[in-house]
Structure prediction request, 279 residues.
Amino acid sequence: MWDYTDKVLDHFRNPRNVGEIEGADGVGEVGSLACGDALKLTFKLDSNGRIADCRFKTFGCASAIASSSALTELVKGKTIEEAARVTNQDIARYLGGLPEQKMHCSVMGREALEVAIENYRTGRTSKKILEGKVVCKCFGITEQEIERAIRDNHLTSVEEVTNYCKAGGGCGSCIPEIEALLARTRRAEPEPAPARPRKLTTLQKIRLIEETMDREIRPMLKRDGGDVELIDVDGDRVLISFRGMCAKCQVAEFTMKDVVEAKLREFVSDSLTVEEAKA
Ligand code: FES
Prediction:
């Protein structure tokens, strides 16, 4: 018997948001009945670009049902940008934790959400496409998926990889390849971000802001066709200007506070405030 939290049991016994939305804005389907778990996620946006409704249909165990139910609750009310940042760890945390052997259910939820968001943004297929080499043929898991599970969850053993994405949990013939991927991903892990100096001169502060923008903020904005430019630094006030899609985005205020300011506070100084420079 699995050691489920009360919240997992509650979401399993009384799943929220079951069903499928007619005319959904985004649809994501992952898994397959042959592999034992499948999930279809649909969402609809309101006029402000926030997720007004999100529903799921799943075939799977208690934790698959609870994870899917938790995911729908987590994303309701969020913008697409906010929802895109929901991780499988957020789903597990929301439920008060999942047994390690069941973490793959939270990964399935995160994957369905990613496919649904991609479907909304591009209009492309609502089904998950297997990209790259399939390493685990028993469960149809690709090299890319295994590497992502290792990176996102800091996995260090084949057993953990099986818990998080099922790879290796069948005939076992893919285990040597999983071991090689574990070694390769560990080698490729980026150096931890440099420690924050205690007291910064103005020049050090500007340099650190620019480095943080290049490393932590721009790559995120560029994925959505946007960018940001540092205009000035006045004491603890950081003046920026959005470019590309970010300049026209309805949720630019959110991006400025929850992305730009949050990252600069994390990596530069807690006392910084970010403002958009007047044109
Ligand atoms: S090929 Fe991966 S468990 Fe069989």
Summary: Residues 136-138, 167-174 surround FE2/S2 (inorganic) cluster (CB under 6 Å). The mean pLDDT is 88. The chain is about 45% helix and 20% strand.
